[in-house]
Protein 1
Amino acid sequence: QRSTQKTRAHVGYCDIMDNGKIVDCTGQNTIADSNLAVVLGTFPNNMEVLFLNGIEGITHLESNIFQGNLKNPGNLKALYINQCNITGALNELGESPFRGLVNLEVLNLDENRGLN
């Protein structure tokens, strides 16, 4: 009999759920601008949903940060970066950090302390 139970594991900074499809790094304040690229490179290649909520060290999203560091950026369907410290005007972000996320259906940047 084959088990259909979804898996959950803690790997590095984040919780990995649903056999790698969901990665939740909510509140992991050891993640910051300085190591975000390295952290993104540790996620499973089948990841579809990424939560980076409540991480005070995220203040800026570099150009191509996701495309250049995720193993399979085209797989990502939902990206939540809420309650971080991203600063500046929303229109200054442009598409550049999100380029290559061709299947992205949900992008949520709510309650960023410096984003207007």
Note: The longest strand covers residues 8-11.
Protein 2
Amino acid sequence: ISFSIAYISVPLHVCLARNDLREGKHHIPSQVITRMDATIEPPDVSKPYASFEKFHITIRNTSQNEIGRNIFDDIEQCINESLQSPIRAKKECSAEEMAQIEQERERQRVETF
């Protein structure tokens, strides 16, 4: 199995400003966007259980401008690299290992806030 991630990093204020331009069913409640901003994590290959995050590209979109079309070449390269290095299935974690992982995730989440 191969994985690749295209992580689009946009400052919260830009997301909210873009959302303010939407109308009707396309407008998302601002508290939903704020909550997602607080919970979505960028790819981090240093995590011991994050081998699927090895092949990623971070696209920084820090202004009101749209992302340039040339970024698709970088995304294609990321996908091709991931296809060349499939991830082997890991053994299933024990209940104790899963509890440890969840505790670590919760600790990191609390530190983020």
Note: DSSP finds four helices and two strands in the chain.
Protein 3
Amino acid sequence: SEIRRRQRTARAKTECELCVLSKESLEAMLVEFPEMQTIFAKVANMKISDLETAAAQRRSLSVADFTCVDWNKYAAVIRESLRGDKDRAVAEPEDDAPAAADGDDAPRPA
């Protein structure tokens, strides 16, 4: 894939580390961690909703309003999504786990 020079300048308010993730790496990560796709979709939908609300209120919007995501603002949603995934994992046993017969709680040989 072609690497292009960015056309915008960003300045951090505090010290930070800037990382770049290629499209291919992101796609591979989403295959390995599909719950991240759900989180990204929720954050994107919230961002769209925020922009629609601002437009309906006729607030002036900057380029940053469209291009930047304040991850701290959406952190609670991300944490809740991750917590929900953990709760479902506990509530829903793995498909390859042996099923116990009714009333049969005896340990199974490995």
Note: The CA atoms of residues 11 and 18 lie 11 Å apart.
